[in-house]
Every structure is written in C-alpha cells, then in structure tokens.
Design a protein that fits this description.
Elements (H helix, E strand, L loop, with lengths): L29 H24 L3 H12 L3 E2 H8 L3 H13 L3 E6 L3 E6 L1 H22 L4 H22 L12
Antiparallel strand pairs: 1-3, 2-3
Helix pairs in contact: 2-5, 3-4
Length: 176
C-alpha cells in the first residue's frame, strides 16, 4: 500500500516574503531570452517534424550534422551540437531502425554514422520546412540586422567555455 503523500503546510502570511531583495530582470536577462527562444523553437520544430516525418528535433539536428560531417561518431555530434550522449544514442537507434543512417566501425572501439539515401532524402524534405521557419523568424529583420545577429550569436557561442568555467570559491558566495 502506498504511503500517504505529505500535505503542504500553508505558511502564515506574516512568514511570506514577497520582496526578497535582488532578482533577475526577466525582460533583460539574456540567458533567459536565449533559453526561451531555443525551447520554443525546438518544441515547435519537434511537433512539426514528428507530425509530418515521424522524427523529432534531436534526430533533425543529427541529420543536419551528418550532412555536414558524414561518418561522425556520437561523441563528436555531442561535442559539436551540445547534446546529451544518451539522447544521441537513442536517436541513433531510432534512425537506424528506420533506415536513415548506417554505421561503420571507428577506432578505438566506437562507430561512425552516415546518412543513407533515405536519410538524405528526409533531410532534403525537412530542410524546406526548416528554412521557412527561419524565414518567418527573421522576417522583421533587415539583411544587415540578420548579419549582425549571426555575428553576435557567434560571439556569444565562443564565450560559452569561459562562462561555463566560472565556479566561485565558497567564500565568494554570499549567504546572508
């Protein structure tokens, strides 16, 4: 018999702090903007691609990478597109079952993947939708603004290792 779930305890209003001091300005916090844009674009693409082609955005990202770099290991794909190895492995299995990719042995004890003819055909069909989604996303920007945006995003991407290296010492973390 399952144990009863503990009920949340309502705090007296006097114990609630509605103004807890500093907080993020969510209208100006760039990581939140980028994350929101990426999540919404990914979920929309995944729904669309699954509806029409039976694959999600993870498989699409792998397909795109395998067009650019055939005979690529899962580890390399994870490194380039920043995806979890387990997600890539699951997608590899699905794509292999559907005949979209093939494998060959790779040193030292891995394997490399490349698209099959069916995989390349799927890429070409989805690419039309992907480019239309991009066109709609950027429709309010001039060509010069698009170039500026791409430049800025590239610069931000280049900063990621520096950002992720940040790990303050315990004495630098304020706990008041």
């Amino acid at each position: 018999m399952p144990l009863p779930r503990p009920q949340p305890v309502a705090l007296p209003v006097s114990d609630l702090t509605l103004d807890m001091g500093p907080k993020l300005d969510m209208d100006r916090y760039v990581p939140a903007f980028l994350n929101s844009i990426a999540n919404k674009l990914s979920s929309g693409a995944s729904r669309l691609y699954f509806k029409h082609f039976g694959i999600g955005v993870v498989e699409w990202r792998i397909i795109v990478h395998l067009v650019a770099e055939p005979w690529c290991t899962a580890a390399r794909i994870c490194q380039i597109i920043g995806m979890d190895k387990a997600a890539v492995s699951r997608s590899y299995a699905l794509m292999e079952d559907r005949g979209l990719i093939q494998f060959r042995p790779a040193e030292p004890r891995g394997r490399e993947a490349a698209l099959t003819v069916a995989g390349r055909d799927l890429h070409d069909r989805i690419l039309v939708m992907a480019l239309e989604r991009e066109r709609r996303l950027l429709a309010d920007l001039s060509p010069r603004e698009v170039d500026t945006l791409i430049n800025l995003l590239g610069r931000l991407l280049a900063r990621i290792p520096h950002v992720n290296a940040y790990d303050p010492a315990p004495e630098e973390i304020a706990v008041d």
